[in-house]
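Design job #97: recover the sequence.
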């Protein structure tokens, strides 16, 4: 009896698991599901041309960062990053991921793609052997599309080898040429053996040499085993007139490069990038396909916007001509200038170089990337010169890591990149659509617990805690520890028999709790000596710096963590606290706003931070009382910090010196919340006392009620006397009670009775 199909676990996805991957979104099966059976695990060639490849802002990127990764590793610039434990803790789904919407692309008639007069522009004619320009115009005469390279004498040809009506391998009837790539012309054909379905024929390298052709076909047959819903399917490998061809699924639709061209035409020739949220959505959607390839021991090598096709509301990764096995050290390497990682010519492709191409493609989609093949061929433009990076700091941090010069500093896996890119997309959408309004929803992080807010105080121990990696060998033992006293717990952890990475991280955190900051420093140093890329150790160093009131080192630590996990809000909240305390209020405010509008779990903590910064500015004469109060009003009634926010709002109004209206609003702000009786009585004393002073100085305003009392001297005296006596009844110490009764008697108005 057949087993019940396993449903995809991704939000909003209706697919089922087939061969280990979702047949709709392409995400891998959940842990414990059957794994897919995949394929087993030179010269530089540009895949497009065939050429051989040989100002002060509120952005936190201007802060110092603690050294991490290759900056700490011996040698500094060599080595490939280890697979971090945080890399395998996420999988996700669908175009837009349920966060944003990408307009569907039209599905064109296949025949409309046929070129009536197929010709390769002279500017793209290069020798396939040495890369020198060939077939160029001379003395007013057009260049020849066929001939021999004047440099190396190798033959070249840019004319289509197949024409309409040719029957390739007795099965595929050619309809016409549709494009030209690094390996020659690409043709549209009908499969006469399978209901005239549309297929694509793409040439193979070395097709002029029969032995080399046979070897090329044998070498690339593994591509036919690639099965993933987001990757074009390879049907067959065939020969025709001593030339070899890959037979592929025809994918109707528009490439992202075509979409960019259409946008530019619609804008009258002015470059019109894809909106940043949609650009991110495209890259998010294709990442499960990359993870699949990497899981099966394959590298894509030549990713760029040309190689994603959108049809309707789905996409597909096409052009597997550059795919090779991870352990293949001999085959030709295909790449494109401006997208290929800088280390590839020297050390070859890797998972890290695939990650690099994804980052470069995202930049090319989201902005006009001038100089991407020259000045910025292997670097990113400066933040100060790039409005996109200035507006979306988290996106810049993600791109900086994705396109890091050292491959070891990049994301370790496509899944790790996907996790952080999802977080960045949430921030981008929140900034575009929410403005400064608080988020109404929350998303659980796989790396951090939510923050803990205790009233208006946000100390190091109220910041989000690291989640324990449940795949760690000692995770169960850590969960079984029931010791509450930090000193006793620290001793237990220091004597652990098997100090795994999670045990060591727990030791460093507990040492901060116990006030043993030197122990934290020692353990953090040991962790980073073993693994310079372990950002969680830097996070703990930041907590220790906060505990010491060492704001500069706290900023450097949290800034470094932010760069490693740019889609997480926890480092931004921690960095905001360090900047607020360390004299960087503008940066702190920007970070608090990001947290507040992106995730409801962070609303209260961020709102209190904003209120502190803005009330301080008001105290200094900047007049931001309304902005501070507005921040406190963002704390929702469902938050356990709502009462504290109301009380803080009342305190701001009382201390503002803004007059009777503000004092009236102060008591109204807490009228419907449950305050501690003594706290409420104290607030009433403060408000009525300030109101009486105001009336004595500026005159009565009987039209204003302050806590139900008309703003006139006699009623306010009566109300204040009663408030003092109520507060005295709620006070435990005798001396304090006597003082409060004396105050009540002092403000009591004289009568003849």
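Job complete. Output follows.
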């Amino acid at each position: 009896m057949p087993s019940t199909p396993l449903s995809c676990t991704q939000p909003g996805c209706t697919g089922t698991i087939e061969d280990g991957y979702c047949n709709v979104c392409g995400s891998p099966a959940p842990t414990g599901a059957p794994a897919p059976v995949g394929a087993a695990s030179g010269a530089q060639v540009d895949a497009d041309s065939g050429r051989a490849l040989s100002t002060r802002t509120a952005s936190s990127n201007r802060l110092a960062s603690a050294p991490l990764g290759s900056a700490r590793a011996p040698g500094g610039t060599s080595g490939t990053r280890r697979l971090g434990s945080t890399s395998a803790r996420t999988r996700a789904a669908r175009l837009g991921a349920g966060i944003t919407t990408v307009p569907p692309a039209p599905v064109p008639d296949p025949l409309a793609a046929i070129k009536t007069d197929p010709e390769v522009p002279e500017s793209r004619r290069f020798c396939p052997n040495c890369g020198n320009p060939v077939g160029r115009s001379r003395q007013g005469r057009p260049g020849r599309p066929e001939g021999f390279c004047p440099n190396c004498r190798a033959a070249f040809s840019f004319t289509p080898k197949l024409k309409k009506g040719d029957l390739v391998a007795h099965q595929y009837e050619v309809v016409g040429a549709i494009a030209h790539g690094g390996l020659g012309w690409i043709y549209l054909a009908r499969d006469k053996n399978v209901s005239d379905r549309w297929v694509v024929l793409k040439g193979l390298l070395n097709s002029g040499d029969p032995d080399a052709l046979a070897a090329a076909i044998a070498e690339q047959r593994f591509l036919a085993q690639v099965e993933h819903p987001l990757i074009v399917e390879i049907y067959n490998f065939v020969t025709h007139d001593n030339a070899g061809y890959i037979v592929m699924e025809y994918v109707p639709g528009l490439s992202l490069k075509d979409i960019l061209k259409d946008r530019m035409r619609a804008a009258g020739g002015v470059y019109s990038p894809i909106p940043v949220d949609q650009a991110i959505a495209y890259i998010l959607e294709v990442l499960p396909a990359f993870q699949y390839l990497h899981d099966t021991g394959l590298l894509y090598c030549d990713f760029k916007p040309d190689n994603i096709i959108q049809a309707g509301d789905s996409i597909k990764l096409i052009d597997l001509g550059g795919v090779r096995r991870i352990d293949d050290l001999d085959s030709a390497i295909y790449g494109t200038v401006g997208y290929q990682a800088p280390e590839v010519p020297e050390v070859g492709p890797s998972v890290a170089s695939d990650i690099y191409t994804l980052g470069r493609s995202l930049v090319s989609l989201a902005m006009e990337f001038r100089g991407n093949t020259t000045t910025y061929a292997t670097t990113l433009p400066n933040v100060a010169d790039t409005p996109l990076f200035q507006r979306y700091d988290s996106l810049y941090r993600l791109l900086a890591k994705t396109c890091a010069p050292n491959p070891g500093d990049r994301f370790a896996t496509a899944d790790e990149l996907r996790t952080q890119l999802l977080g960045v997309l949430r921030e981008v959408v929140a900034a575009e659509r929410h403005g400064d309004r608080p988020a109404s929803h929350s998303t659980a992080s796989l790396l951090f617990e939510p923050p803990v807010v205790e009233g208006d105080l946000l100390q190091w121990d109220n910041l989000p805690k690291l989640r324990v990696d449940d795949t760690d060998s000692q995770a169960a033992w850590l969960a079984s520890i029931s010791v509450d006293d930090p000193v006793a717990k620290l001793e237990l952890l220091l004597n652990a028999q098997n100090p795994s990475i999670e045990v060591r991280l727990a030791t460093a955190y507990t040492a901060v709790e116990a006030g043993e900051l030197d122990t934290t420093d020692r353990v953090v140093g040991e962790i980073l000596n073993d693994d310079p890329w372990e950002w969680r150790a830097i996070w703990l160093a930041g907590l220790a710096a906060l505990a010491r009131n060492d704001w500069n080192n706290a900023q450097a630590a949290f800034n470094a963590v932010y760069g490693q996990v740019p889609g997480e809000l926890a480092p931004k909240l921690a960095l905001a606290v360090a900047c607020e305390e360390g004299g960087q209020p503008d940066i702190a405010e920007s970070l608090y706003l990001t947290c507040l509008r992106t995730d409801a779990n962070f609303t209260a903590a961020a709102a209190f931070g904003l209120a502190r910064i803005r009330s301080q500015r008001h105290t200094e004469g900047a007049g931001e009382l309304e902005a501070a109060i507005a921040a406190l009003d963002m704390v929702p009634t469902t938050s356990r910090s709502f009462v504290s926010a109301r009380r803080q709002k009342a305190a701001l109004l009382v201390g503002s010196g803004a007059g009777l209206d503000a004092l009236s609003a102060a008591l109204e702000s807490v009228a419907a919340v449950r305050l501690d009786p003594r706290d409420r009585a104290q607030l009433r004393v403060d408000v009525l006392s300030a109101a009486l002073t105001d009336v004595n100085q500026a005159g009565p305003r009987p039209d204003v009620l302050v806590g139900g009392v008309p703003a006139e001297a006699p009623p306010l005296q009566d109300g204040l006397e009663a408030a003092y006596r109520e507060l005295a009844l709620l006070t435990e110490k005798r001396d304090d009670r006597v003082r409060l009764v004396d105050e009540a008697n002092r403000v009591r108005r004289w009568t003849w009775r």
